[in-house]
Amino acid sequence: MERHAIYPGSFDPITNGHVDVIERAAQMFDRVTIVIAVNSRKTPLFDQAERMEMATKALAHLPTVEVAVHSGLVVDYANDHHASVIIRGLRAVSDFEYEFQIALMNRKLQPSVSTIFLMPHERYTYLNSSIIRELARYEQDLSDFVPSCVAAALRNKFQ
Ligand code: ADP
After folding, report:
1. What confidence tens digit (pLDDT) does each residue in 126-149 have?
2. Cα diameter, the chain
3. The whole model's pTM is what?
4. Ligand 1 pocket: which residues have CB below 6 Å?
5. Using only C-alpha atoms, what is the Rg of the chain?
6. pLDDT-derived band of residue 38, with 50, 70 and 90 as boundaries?
7. Backbone dihedral region of 73: left (phi > 0), alpha (psi from -120 to 50 degrees) or beta?
8. Among 59, 74, 123, 159, which is least packed, fewest CB within 10 Å?
């Protein structure tokens, strides 16, 4: 039986913290799918096609990793695609409460799907997509924080 994990999130845009988590997950599972989810509470900077293109380029070095877009419940995607694991990243204690709530709700909705938390390298623990969007607005150098294709896309957005 193939071990298939999904990594859902907004990825608006994908950062080196996400890539670090995905590289760790790729070592643990036969197949990993990045699921770019629509989040009704967020207005994204990049549309789904742009987020998908950036993630696909940033993960091209990982042959067992693919990128998909999904607008429904994450557990439904997992079920439909025979994924038994949801990956989430944990940066700090502040992530925990929110992540714990989602993980328990997902388990209630779909008991056969488990959530696994992975910690990125500590150099990425203070990184999130909204800080990146803010820095890009002020034309900061983002090369330590995001893949080069993302840095280029951000420059285009704000120039
Ligand atoms: P959300 O839409 O829930 O905020 P994101 O798209 O920002 O999620 O990220 C998806 C997942 O990646 C979440 O589990 C989040 O905690 C995690 N994540 C975000 N940034 C990082 C990072 N720098 N290092 C590790 N995990 C991260």
Report:
1. 999 999 999 999 989 999 999 999
2. 48
3. 0.94
4. 9-11, 15, 17-18, 21, 39, 88-89, 91, 95, 120, 124, 127-129
5. 15
6. confident
7. beta
8. 159
